[in-house]
Amino acid sequence: MTREMTGAKMVVQALKDQGVDTVFGYPGGAVLPIYDEIFLQNDIRHILVRHEQGAVHAAEGYARSTGKPGVALVTSGPGATNAVTGLTDALLDSIPIVVLTGQVPTFMIGSDAFQEADTVGITRPCTKHNWLVKDTDSLSETMHEAFHVATSGRPGPVLIDIPKDVQFASGDYTGPKPSTSHYQPVLKGDLEEITELVAAIETAKKPVFYTGGGVINSGPAASQLLRELVDATGFPITSTLMGLGAYPASGENWLGMLGMHGLYEANLAMHDCDLMINIGARFDDRITGRIDAFSPNSKKAHIDIDPSSINKVIRVDIPIVGDVAHVLEDILKVWKARGRKTDAAAVKQWQSQIADWRKVNCLAYTNSEKTIKPQYALQRLEELTKNHDRYITTEVGQHQMWAAQYLGFEDPNRWMTSGGLGTMGYGTPASIGVQMAHPDALVINVAGEASWLMNMQEMGTAVQYRLPVKQFILNNERLGMVRQWQELLHGERYSHSWSEALPDFVKLAEAFGAKGILCSDPADLDDAIMEMINYDGPVIFDCLVEKHENCFPMIPSGKAHNEMLLGEAETQGVIDSKGSVLV
Amino acid sequence: MSALHIKQGSTRHSAYNLRPTFSDVQERHTIAVLVENEPGVLARVIGLFSGRGYNIESLTVAEVDHTGHLSRITIVTTGTPQVIEQIKAQLGRIVSVRDVHDLTVEGSSVERELAIIKVVGEGDKRVEALRLADIFRANVVDSTLNSFIFEITGAPDKIDAFADLMRPLGLVEIARTGVAALLRGD
Where are any strands of DSSP class E within A305-463? Predict the structure, then answer.
């Protein structure tokens, strides 16, 4: 069934037909017809951000916390170029978002018109796919295809560039139909490979599950199936930064996060295991450390919906291309049918080995009665918020790693962080996107003061839409992670890693119309956090913490999992010149 | 051609191929990529190679199915077996790519390239150029009193050999199409 309407109306109609309820955007000359249509309807809420990068990160936060695609709408030229960081972030972390950009009219494309940029050219490498729509008749089909591509297979960002004359012109609108798209990624894994993995599960003596963001992306069923498989086999499980929450932090087989700042027991389990089952993770360099020393004696299985992830970095023995939920379902089926076997005695011994590693208590730190230790601040935050309907976003740096270490996630979609790209400035807009999707939840952005300043303008958005996001800033007046690396790698020459002109965050909060809280004494911390939680509105919490705290454990660049540093005493001259080249 | 009918986005096929150990040996592969003929599709493919640091030795592209709007891109590339597998998997990931075939591993294939070569000279050199052209079955497609343009078709090696012979005889300019390739048999 087709209906005639303008391109601008088609955009709004297609969004409605795709079930979109929220759009994050910023108007400009090349998208005015679409904004006109948004004005004339009430089904889709438009959230006016303060910067286009914020719109894209907010859409990411919305997507990551709901499992639905996030949508951003920005204008041509600078609107589109400002969206590039968000698109790249979503590409690296496989977040489904649809970004709509205005473009100069088709007859002016290529003339260096006002606010013209080659948007599809610029965003080609940072989107999963993009389109320039040159005639109105093909607009609705492209819109529906964009949602299909963003959410199918390995999810990712897509962009549609819509020239202004295409928005004004009329054409035939077609609704979404069962996809006729050629893009149809395979969901079911190969049964032979799955059976081979089950056989390996049955005989493994030192197995470990290594899970990632793919489990979250696959949907709630994947997390359920993962829990069933882990609990039934009794195998220990660790996760990447992106996969936290797929298996509950309170679960008895939980090892904690792995990787550069992962837990001692998790990294040693990865190093010493004889069967590694990678589920929806991608052997990122933050995980593997030195490649040639990565888990040298294990058989490795890799479940991933993206074939290019397999054998990209680490050669695996059992590759399974498919959707995590589909593959886990088949693994469980085959494993049960073959009699639910594991080498229980060996696994028990393995677990007691892990228990010994755990006794090292790698997250221990020296607390202070005078200054707030960042670890302590997060432990208190965890204690006082864990029973709330809670969502956490973060910025990037030390605070992000401490949040991953000290906060516990019981469910998927509760943890929004910039993993692959490491985008400082992600957390504030992401918290806004999350709060829009979950108006009654407690949404906290764990931030560092440097990251937070990168997109602080979005506090205006939070205040305008009465979004009670809590900005929990661990303020060490330093670029903490940069400072840590300079200490360890560059002879304690702290080149430009501190700010001498930080704002007064309490006054800043008040200037935005939000509440500001300052806390510098550990004795006041609990009350201050409670005040933040109980305040009905956005809060900037300026938590003044120890300025020179380093984030441990740490696997230095160029080292293997079993060469972790556990604390200050071990940091002298640990990173050689080869390692210092790495980031 | 005997397509493996790899579904777009799937890659069980290439996952299996990925099983051998990583080797350092550089291999030369000819890859045929069937793409939807839409604006920017060539930029996607080339951008993949430049962005990820893969080599392109030769690349040809033209529409091969006007009704289906499909183009065929033939790429000759070099890399370790792991890199070649990555290239294929990354190509398969591009939404506008319908099919990826590694002609080097899927069976024996026929590779052809066309070149036109301008040779300027007089006297014995001119006669010798014409004689060698005859041996290589190159055609004269243009002639002046002191120059020829030869057209030669063949495998890239043959064109290299012919060009090497023409160089001392007055080769001044050469234009090559790059490789077009098909699998043998049905």
Answer: 318-321, 390-394, 415-416, 442-448
Question: With b meaning 16 or more CB within 10 Å and e meaning fewer, what string describes A229-256?
Answer: bbeebebbbbbbbbbbbbbbbeeebbbb
What is the tens place of the pLDDT at every residue in A451-475?
999 999 999 999 999 999 999 999 9
A191 touches chain B (CB under 8 A): no
Cα B98 to Cα A139, A304, A352, A458, B10, distances in angstroms: 22, 20, 51, 42, 11
The reply to whether A425 and A528 lie within a common domain is: yes
Q: What are phi and psi of B27, to 5 degrees?
A: -115, 150
Range(s) of the domain holding residue A539: 374-551
Mutate to test the interface with A, among B4, B7, B12 (most CBs of A within 10 A): B12
Alpha helices (H) in B53-102, listed in sequence order: 81-93
- Residue B2: which pLDDT band, with cuts at 50, 70 and 90? very low
Instruction: Give per-residue pLDDT as tens, A83-134.
Output: 999 999 999 999 999 999 999 999 999 999 999 999 999 999 999 999 999 9
**In a 10 Å sphere around its CB, with 0-12 CB exposed, 13-18 middle and 19+ buried, how is residue A334 labelled?**
middle
CB A404 within 8 A of CB A261: yes
Q: Report the domain count for chain B.
A: 2
Identify whether A481 is a catalytic site residue.
Answer: yes
- A168 and A202 co-located in one domain: no
Q: What is the helix (H) or strand (E) element at residue A461, kind and residue range?
A: helix A459-464
Q: State which amino acid sits at residue A106.
A: T
CB atoms within 10 A of CB A383: 12
What is the domain extent for residue B176? 109-183
Confidence at residue A581, expressed as pLDDT on a 0 to 100 scale: 72
Q: Which two tokens stand for residue A43?
A: 């089904």
What is the mean predicted confidence (pLDDT) over A543-566? 91
**For the segment B77-135, what is each residue's pLDDT rounded down to a tens digit?**
999 999 999 999 999 999 999 999 999 999 899 999 999 999 999 999 999 999 999 99
For residue A124, give the nearest of B47, B90, B92 by CB distance: B47
User: Does residue B14 have a pLDDT over 60?
Assistant: no
Looking at the structure of chain A, the number of domains it has is 3
| Together in a domain, B98 and B137 | no
| B99 and chain A in contact, CB less than 8 A | no
Share of chain B above pLDDT 90, in %: 85
pLDDT band at A569 (very low <50, low <70, confident <90, very high): low
